[in-house]
Amino acid sequence: MNLMESSDAVFDIVALGELLIDFTPLPAKNGMALPRTFVAHAGGAPANLACQAARLGRRCAYVGAIGDDALGHRIVATLAAHDVDVSLVAVIPDLPTTLAFVDLRADGERDFSFVRNPGADTRIVMRPELETVLAGARCLHHGALSLTHEPARSTTAAAVRQLRRQGGLVSYDPNVRLPLWPDVGQLRQHSAGALAGCDMVKLSDDDLAVLEPTAGREALPGWFERYPLRLILLTAGRAGSEAIWRRTDGRLGQVSVPASDPGRPSIDSTGAGDSFTGAFLSALLERLPGVGPRDSRAGFASWIDRVDPEEMRQLLRYASQMAALSTTRSGGISSLGDEAERRLVFPA
Question: CA-to-CA distance for 78 and 199, rounded, in angstroms?
């Protein structure tokens, strides 16, 4: 799909952020030895989310940058194959595509080592074509990795300002990757700035441990006083997920669900949180029929005011099921499931 084919294209979700290659290791015969083989997977947290939402029927566009190299072009081809519009992915000739090496633990959880000094993904710039696409976007989603360097940081901030000015919905994921920040203070500072411009945030318990190292979950209700948030989604891997939301009258709602069991071993959690958020946003936007780019925030606020705990649990279960499916395969985008698979694995 190419937005340039239609000047009045309207997207459910425009995702902005890093594009990279995740190198996932195949197990070494000796568990203490370095892997001899890595498998390359197209990824980047907002890209994983966009592909998940597209697989669930949402119209998605991506804003990012790659190097003029084979790996970068393979990422773009992968997004296009998932029906994500890639017309706003820039090719940067003097910087390489960012790389991430994944270290998988026995439980499928992972650590990352990055080759990004900086990478091409930091060269996202505001341009008229981007303003046009944002004008037709119901929701903008971004993460913290586009805040580590200029010009991506300023471009992200400008995109958020445009969405909020025109009444669009803004979603944010802190996606804490400490090796990419000079110090944790800058991460907290820029993440606070992002929270000041978003309507909903999804974070993991690992993210929360860095952003709120003292208070932890007890700090989250206070976020509604500090930021214009209406919904907080918290994922905790095998411990399940939780939603906290604030109604217009100030009352808070809160529900949680256990983690979903796909009946298969979890081998790689890369992209599971992005799958969760992509599925949640897809189901949420489906519940806002007739809500367009200019009134999606108002429609979201109206839904938050009337949503009951059981409907929120249903959304959490749905997102949890899609995330659980993704952990049974390696990689980010390559691990994503669709609605047919979800119904097959979770028929109830």
Answer: 29
The whole-number average pLDDT for the span 246-271 is 95
Q: Can you tell me the distance from the alpha carbon of 241 to that of 221, in angstroms, rounded to the nearest whole number?
A: 16
| pLDDT per position as a tens digit, 19-40 | 999 998 776 666 556 666 888 9
Return phi, psi of residue 214, to 5°: -95, -55
Tokens of 167: 């009444």
Residue span of the structural domain in which 147 resides: 10-340
Residue 6: its pLDDT value, please? 44
DSSP string, 68-112: SSHHHHHHHHHHHHTTEEEEEEEEETTSPPEEEEEEE-TTS-EEE
Q: Across-strand partners of 232?
A: 201, 244
Contact 230, 304 (CB under 8 A): yes
Q: What is the CATH number of the domain that holds 183?
A: 3.40.1190.20
The count of structural domains within the chain is 1
